[in-house]
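This protein record is not my work; I was only asked to verify it. Would you go through it and say whether the fold makes sense for this chain? Here is the record exactly as it was handed to me.
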Amino acid sequence: MISLLRTVLLATCLAAPVQAKEITVFAAASLGDALEQAAQGWEEHTGHAVTLVLAGTSTLARQIDAGAPADVFVSANVDWMDWLSTHERIDAQSRRDIASNRLVLIAHDRSAQSDTVLTEATDLTEWLGTDGRLAIALPEAVPAGVYGKAALTQLGLWDAVASRLAPTDNVRAALALVALGEAPLGIVYETDALAEKGVTVAATFPDTSHPPIRYAAAVVADSANPELAAGFLSWLVSGTGQAALAAHGFLPPKAMP
């Protein structure tokens, strides 16, 4: 009888489905569409769930440092990831680059579409017109803005436009300003321009004009589900995860010297 009971209990345990769990991913706003697709694939593959929290990298990093309940952090540059690492808020061993990107100048006017590469001779004030402003994520804090300022400075164009900026909390907000016609020009990632039909690429920044655009990801130090979070990171760098990112215009991680 006891043997039979044990057999029944064992069979019941084996038949019971694994309880689904959920992880929370804090990620740069520019990754939104691509991560939604990647997360959906991971959910279907594992049976677990992903909640995406999208915002400016600097905002998310500060929230994690303040104890926000996140399992994974995906940053649009390495500086904020370094900052969290210094504060011991991420698992440094789990850290990896998952993608890269390009920086472009977008315009609301479709006739401005061009494959021009910005140079020192570019007159952005003329492109902006009499009172137009340049939409850009916060250039002192948000990665897209930091890259934008670095590129404009390297090209000798920063001083001419510094007083004519329309700064925003994240790169998608800068994209929206141009799409709505509130600003004639903006600086965003190439993937943002591809995702918004209301803008066109007016010019591209030389890759050498700014630090490499690297999307770094890591498991948050106090994650409630560290193994699951690590599995999600592995999924992002797998062939399936990379295909989801590539479908939205993201480039593979660049080899760093």
In short: The longest strand covers residues 22-28. The mean pLDDT is 91. Residues 103-209 form a domain with the D-Maltodextrin-Binding Protein; domain 2 fold (CATH 3.40.190.10). The first helix runs from residue 2 to 15.
